[in-house]
Amino acid sequence: MKHIYIIKFLLSFILNVSFAQYIYGQEIHNNQLENKDSLEVRRLFGLMEEFEYSNTDTSIYYCKRAYNISKKINEKSLEAYSLYYLGGLYDIQGLYELAYNHYFEALSIFEKLQDKKGLGGCLNCIGIVLWEQSEQAVIALKINKLKKSIEYTDKALVLYREINYKKGEAVCLMNKGIVFDDCAKYEQDTLVQKEKYIKAIDFYKQAMDVFVEIGDIRSTADCNLNVASLYYDIYINETDTILTKVEFDMMENYLESSLELYNKDNDLYGLAMVLKSLATIKIQYAKSNKSHKSFLYTAIRDAKKSLELADSVNALFLKYDAYFALFDAYKSLNQFDKALQYHELYLTTKDSVHKIEGLEAMEEMETLYNVQKKENEIKVQKKEIIQTQAENKQQKYIILVVILILIFISILVVKMFKLNRQKKSINNILNEKNELLNKLNSTQNRLISIISHDFKAPLSAFYSITNSLKTKYDKIDRGEIDNLLSRMLNSSVALKLQLENMLNWAITQDREIRVNKSQYNLHILALKIIIILQEFAAEKSIIIENSIDEDIELHTDGKLLSIVLNNLISNAVKFSKPDSKIIVSAKNKDKKVILSVKDFGVGINKDDIKNLFVNQDKISKNENSGTGLGLIVSKDIIDKLEGKIWAESIVGEGTEIFIELS
Domain containing 163: what range? Predict the structure, then answer.
């Protein structure tokens, strides 16, 4: 059973619902009815819909005019709907990238306007474009686009349910059924494939319930037909063309319901489709059981009626299927002369269908050519406008010179009254320069303090160790040499960290930190720092544990955050007890990420914690504590990243430093 009708439903019904949303379903700013330009926009929308399928290029022309007027009068709601409709028109032409871009542009305006109906329409149509693009993609991209299509449709569904827009809700459910149907087709695992078919059926049934609730006869009939079609695919795949009585009855019930509704709606195309489908299942059921030969005669009756209706609406696709059903039925009855007759008609119609498909492809290429041609014409018009503007500018220059002379005379008069203000401004500038000079002096003193304090100890140790190695190398045993080399490594690491901190601090003092954010995996970012510092930590038999989940990601500046992590983990190693560990962890909380570095070292008392991240010009008397420069640099960087940093500690048990980023 072919799914031609499902595709037709999606392209015509869904887009018509979307386009009618503004013209018939929603009044945008009733007070606009008094505005001449707004009335013109609404008139253009009506013209656009009139030519929507008969001449899409003309429809696009009217829609662009509506967009330009809406932009000119700064009516954001009309502007958003103009972009939305343009997206739909480009979608009809198969220009999916243009459609995609216009939908997203409209989406951003609807978000600012908090127009949930417009948002739902954009999200739903983006899902449709992704589904359409999947038809042309390779399998890997096809599956990915179908997943994305479901995501956008789900977002639209949530919005429609929030505002109780039943028709939009039903359309979204129908779309999900269509996409899950396609997902099933590309599934290799038969069990998983059946699960996806069942999901598709479930969404069709949900859509059907809503369509029944709002009295949409045509859409209810479509749902019944599509459910029967999917059940047919499931049972045929499972039993290799054998249908049981239960399966046949189930499909027949859905098709009979659909037939009744199409008849009530006087939908000849729908009636032809259902009758063809009834003929198909009756032929398959008769093949499953020889005693059901009578079903072949009713199948012939249904197929001929379908053929008659298809002919009246000039639906070659349905005639093609009806001829095949008649061929199959007569062949099963061993009436080979009639079977041959309908097989020839089937082949002839099949050739005609392929010719039409070829013509449609040619028309699509011609449409693309015309679109490109119009864009080139617009570019030529823009050049002509620019030339005209240049000529007008020459005439305006004379007027501008006169105006400038008058302005200059006015400035001379006014300037006398501004001398007093200028003097005050100069004084303010001098005060700012004095403050800057004081800051520079403070920075200079700070640098001298850092060099004399934090560099003195590791440099002295480095000198002492290298001197011992130089003068006593022959007298020192292997174990002592290893010890001295380890001390040299620690001294060099300390020097490197202090130098990096000093440079980073100097940059922060000059306000030159530049933040370049990107998406980073926190587990990998921390792992790189841990690998660098693990040798340093191993000297005290300290284990650095990376407890960050591998799926936690953050939009931040990885380089700056690495500097902070380097400082915090280095400090943790410095103040940790031997044979302990350091835990680096992170968690998501209220759309933010909280990162922490915890050690089990000496801890910090409450008074010192208060000043831990304060930029002070005094040096601690504790030789192990240093200037605290690394924490000050970290605080400056976290401020630049618009985050928070704080510490919690228990003396004798350890310290944990937290960073909160969004």
Answer: 4-240
> What six digits make up the tokens of 475?
């007298």
Q: Which residues contact residue 89 at a Cβ distance below 8 angstroms, ignoring those fewer than 6 apart?
A: 48, 52, 56, 59, 60, 63
Residues making up the chain, counted from first to last: 662
Using DSSP's 3-state secondary structure scheme, residue 543 falls into: strand
Q: For position 581, which CATH number holds? A: 3.30.565.10
15 inside domain:
yes
Task: Give the CA count within 13 Å in the CB-facing half-sphere of 656.
Answer: 12
Displacement of CA 590 from its chain's centroid (Å): 20
- Residue 477 phi/psi, 5-degree rounding, is -80, 170
Give the domain-ending residue among 215, 240, 265: 240
Amino acid at 200: A
> Cα dist. 475→468, 469, 470, 481, 545 in Å?
10, 9, 11, 10, 40
Residue with tokens 């192990």: 624
Phi, psi of 545 (to 5 degrees): -105, 125
Among candidates 554, 559, 447, 553, which has minimal Cα distance to 514? 559
Q: Note the pLDDT tens digit of each residue in 136-186.
A: 777 778 888 888 999 999 999 999 999 999 999 999 999 999 898 888 888
**Residue that terminates a domain, selected from 207, 225, 240:** 240
Question: How many structural domains is the chain composed of?
Answer: 2
The long-range contacts involving 375-378, CB below 8 angstroms and separated by at least 24 positions, are none
Taking the C-alpha atoms of residue 476 and residue 482, their distance in angstroms, rounded to an integer, is 10
Instruction: Check if the beta carbon of residue 126 is closer than 8 Å to that of residue 175.
Output: no
In degrees and rounded to multiples of 5, residue 533 shows phi and psi of -95, -5
CATH number at residue 218: 1.25.40.10
Residue 57 lies in a domain: yes
Question: Residue 512 corresponds to which tokens in the numbers above?
Answer: 């030159």
Q: Copy the structure tokens of residue 133.
A: 């693009």
Q: Shortest CA distance to 553 belongs to which of 578, 580, 523?
A: 523
Give residue 591's region: left, alpha or beta (phi > 0; psi -120 to 50). left
Q: Name 544's bridge partners.
A: 582
Distance CA 251, CA 253 (A): 5
Phi-psi region of 652 (alpha: psi -120 to 50; beta: other; left: phi over 0): left
For the stretch 68-110, pLDDT in tens is 999 999 999 999 999 999 998 888 888 888 898 999 999 999 9
User: What is the token pair recorded at 13?
Assistant: 């019904």
In a domain? residue 179: yes
Helix or strand holding residue 594 (H, E): strand 592-598
Token look-up 């190693």 returns: 573
**How is residue 330 written in tokens?**
């007569």
CB 556 within 8 A of CB 517: yes
Helix (H) or strand (E) holding 598: strand 592-598
- Whether the Cβ atoms of residue 173 and residue 209 lie closer than 8 Å to each other: no
Q: Quick check: is 285 in a domain?
A: no
Prediction pTM value: 0.49
pLDDT mean across residues, the chain = 79
Digit-coded pLDDT (tens) for 554-572: 999 988 898 899 989 988 9
- Identify the residue with better confidence: 154 or 506: 154
In this structure, the strands spanning 543-546 and 581-589 are: parallel
The rounded distance, in Å, linking the Cα atoms of 320 and 492 is 83
CA atoms of 505 and 318, how far apart (whole Å): 77
- Residue whose pair of structure tokens reads 């240093």 in the numeric block: 626
